[in-house]
Structure formats: C-alpha cells, structure tokens
Give the backbone structure.
Amino acid sequence: MTVSRLLLILAPQNTAMGHLDELESAARALEEVLQHDNLGQCSPALADQGAVLYGPDATQARIEAAVRAAARQAGEAGATLVLAFLGHGMAASGHAELYLMCADAEPDVVSTAVNVGQMIVQAAEQPGVDGVITLVDTCHAAGAVPDVKALMAGMRGGRTRASLLMASRAGQEARDLAFSRRLAELLRQGIPGGGRHAGVSELREMLRQTVFGQDIISLEHDGDHFAVGGLWLSHNARHAGADHSGPGLLGTEDLKAALEAAGPAVAWPQPWSSHELDRVRREIQTIKETGTGVGPAALLHRALHAVDGLRVCLATQSFLTSWIGGKLTTQRLRKALPPLSADVYALMPDTTGTALLTDLLELLVLRAPRVGESRTELLTRFVATLGADAGMDLSDPEITAWADACGARIELNDAQEDLFRAQAARRLRLVVSLHATVADDWPESLDLWLLDSGKVCERAVLASTPTQAAVEAKLAEAVAWARKHARIRRSELRHVDVAVPTSLLLRWKPEETDFGVRLGVNHDVVVRWSMRLNPPAHLWWINDHARAGLEQMNTCAAKAPVDWLAEHDAGQPQDLGEQLRAGRYTRAVAFAHRPANLKQLMELLLAYVPVVLWPDTNEGFSSAEQALLDMLWDRLPAELAEAYRRRWQGGSAAPSDRLADLRSVWHDLEWLDFCNWFDSHDAANGSM
C-alpha cells in the first residue's frame, strides 16, 4: 500500500522587498512535478484551495494556519508532508534563523514574518505525521534548519523525521528562483544511475552541478526506527526499473477523466500500448451503448475522444522515434511546433527530451483547437516540419503510412506544399547596408547584396544624399532592383535585412518606409547592426563572440535564451560594461523598461550580444508579457514582423500583438555567415 503524501507550497510576494518575477512559475513547476502520478505522487494539502498559497494573499496568519492545517491532515492520514518555502528570506542581525517574508511582513521586523524552522518543528511534531520534507528557496535558506533538540526531545519523544533541501547557506543570496526551477527539471529528468527514489542528498549533489553562485545544502534527521522506508521527494524517472512509457501530464489528466466517466470496470492501460488503448476504447464503447457507466453519455463520448487522441499520440511518438531517431533534439522539437493560440501556448511544457515529445504531441492533439474540421492538421504540420528540419524525405513511404494510419493523408499533402512554399520564400534575401554614414547621420550611399540560398548573386551601390527622405527613396529603389532579379530567377523576395549604424537604430524604423505601401507589408524586415559587416581593428573579435553566444542560446531548452535587464541594471552603464567584458551577458539581452540612456547602453551591448530587444514605448514589459518570448522565441524575428503588420492593420487583440511594442537588433548564424563572406570578399577586392 502506497503511503499518502501531502504537498503545501508557500510562495508569498512581498512588495516591500521587491516583486519576484519568477516566483509563481517556479511554484507552479514544483506543484506540477510533485503532484505527478509517476513522480512526486503528492496530493494537495489545502483541499479545495490546491497545493500553492501564492502572492499577496499569503500573509503571515494564512501561511502559519495553512502549515498547521496541513500537518494536522498529514497526521490524521499518516502521511508524509512536503513543504516548500519560496520567496524573500530575512535573517535577523546576529542570528541564523530564517524568516520567510510573507505578503504583509515588514523589512527587519521579524515578528511580522514566518519563522521557517519553527514551522518545520511544529509540523514534524504533529502526531501521526510520517515525516516532513522541506524545500527552501530564499536568501539565507540554510537558516531554516530547525532546532534539532526540539526534534529529538519534543512531544513525540524524538520519533520525528525531517529532511531539508536548501538553496543557499545562511548569509548568502539565492537568485531568480534558480534552485526551484532546476529542481523541477531534475525531478522530471531523473537521476542517471540513481535508485528507485530521489532523496534530498542525491538531489543536492545534482543541483550543485547546475545551480551556480549558491551553496546547495541538505539536512536529514530520522529518529523513528519504526518507520518503513526513508523519506524521498520523488520517484526517480531514470531508475533502471522505472516504467518510462505512459502518457504525459495532459494525457494522464484526460485519461483519468475518461476512466472516471466509465466507472471502475475499466482498468488503467498497463502496459502503455496501442493494444491496451484499444481495449480501453472497446470497453468504454460497450459501457456507452449499454448505459452502465457512472457518467452521462456526453462524458462517455468525450472519454472515447480522449482515448482516440491518445492512440494518435502513441502511434506518432513510435513513428517519429523510429523514423527520425537520433536526429530528434529538444530544440528541434520546439522549433517545429506550429503557431498556436495564446491559451494553448500557456500550456507549453518545460520538459526536455522524450518527455517533451510526449507532452508536445498531447498538446497538439488533446488541447489545440481543430483547424476547420481536421483534428490532425496541426499535428501533421508538426511532424512534417520536424522531418524537413532533420533532412528527411517527406515522400518516404513511412511518413505516408503514418498519415494513413492517423487519417491525415490530405493534411500531410497540404503540409508538404506549405513547406515547399516557405522554403521557396526563404531562398532570396536582400541585404541593404547604411554603413556609409556621414558624421553619425544618414549615409551618402547604400550598399546592396542579393543572396540566393545564402550565396551572394548580385551586388550594387546606390548613391544618395544624407537625408532620411533620400535614403528611404533609395531603399525603395533597392527593393525594386532586388525584385527584378527575383523575377529573373523565378523566385520571390520576402526577406529584407537592413544593416543600420548605432546612430540610426533608435530613431528609424526601416519597415515603415513608404513607397506607396509600407516596406514591411509584403516583406519580413530584420534590422542588423552595420558595424558587424566591417568591424574596426579593435573590434575584430565581435562576430566570433556573437557566434559563441548563439551556440549557447541554441542549447536553451524550455525558456527563451534572454537576459532581461531591470531598471537598476540599465542605470549602471559602467557596471554593465564590466560584466560584458567578463562574459556575463552572451545571450540575447532585453530591456523590461526603456531606459533614458538607451543609446549609451546600445553602444555597449551591440558588440557583445547577438540580439538586443527594447520597448518602443515607455510602458515597459511586465513579467507576463516577457513570457511571450518563451512561447514565441522559435518564431522570432519573423513574428516581430507579423506583429508590426497586425498593428498597422488594426490588431487582433491577441496577447502576442504586444510584440509590436518591441524593437530589435537581430543577428543569427545566417547573418554572421554573410559577415564572414563580406569580410573575405571585400578584403580581397580591397574595398571599404
């Protein structure tokens, strides 16, 4: 019999100490993994309120009452209680005790905060509690270590058990909830070579390898020699005896609902296989026809729909694993995901590897809305894009057989045509450089290159006068020149790169160049930094440095590889310069608010980071809006161009339309390859 387990996560937002942008997402990530049936196996301790007490409602009184109520419930059930304290932590001067800054706590007034160690002792001392596991992700986290004497000689006579895993030592800061976020990922991935369960000591060692700048600390106390088994936080997903097959979170949720509607006569599919899902479907269909289920007919119909969806997911996962095999990567999976609505994007998993493949298939089949009458169009587009990106032959009989099995042959044909058109649209690219500026103003000429499949096929120089109107007229002439050559090559021109000097970046939007219709209406315009085309001698290293940064960005699995600079960071250019020289920022950098000294900061950043983003207005970007980049990163910068077009045409009121308030300077590997070509060819020709 499985011992019951209860979960309570305390994550207060204390405005006096500063809003923590990652707090809710970190709390929810722990909640999700610790309640997963195959991992943490916890039930929520707050009954109708769930497992998380978050935000401004998490006051001192509510937190303390919630911990006591959870301990009482665990004691009555003989359960293990898992507690997590996330947020701002305070330690009184000269004392090691940790106080959690609840929503109504006052800085430096410990009587208004929650004494974490005392809460742990009270919970462990509750009669019947099978042990308390505590996670602490705050500054001064090790101050949560409870009074061991109280555990050894309390009301239970020392028969208490407590395990703690803490994000930092006493007197040390914890940053960005990295401990909680990495712990959630680690529990999903499992510990290679570990045992059946993951306890705090094993997790401590793994976290020390990936959470830097913080000393991860653990403590284990076991005074109950009658207890059966040690305290563990999660099943180890990578244990040799673990069942790796099965549905993901969405599939588990839908299958549970289906079996509840059918009643106890239908058993969970074990092992996880198409054969077992067929058995479940037959049994639910029989119950629906005979009217013997515990749920109404409508619920049984939805149950059949869910099982059918899971059969498609399982068949697709088996096909992709055998067809693409070793070419499947986490980044490739995320990149292949088709455009989805904001509410579906909100369900995007933060898993990696095989678990991510399972989760994405369930997202597309079980949660994404139908396209017309087709349930499989988005799934088919995903499979075809994944295959094309991996260099597979989309006319392969294997993918055709998969489409036939899923009833998606026409959807596959449509997806193949769409990919062919998209590939054709990417073939040509016009590069326009304004590097010939006069006294940091408008240039006297524009240099043009037309690229065909990444190779320069045409070149030209257009003389201009150094005014905005003249330059925009020449830009229109450049587009007409490129489109003429595109027709000769029987192709179309969709992409236009405009390389702009620093002096013009903040005051000019090339996509708004109007020659009867705005340039950005029919073209995806990407702004580049012209200095990368011909860097001066002292900046010889910038393109190699950017390439290393892009390679690092490509390893980012779940979140957008963006470092958001707060107002404080933006207000310290000298400190920022030191951090850039030390290699602190190598990924994309974005400003949450538009700083007054943006030009000065751009002059610093552009040499060091491959992508810079900033708000076009003084309104700034909230943490929720910043999360848009997590959802849409693999579609940038093209999605920025789409957002500008939607804004011009009246907008759609979709959350992604907020991207239209972002400006960017974007450098990718394709651009750096062109810079290399430009450097070698112009050096050989002795120009510039």
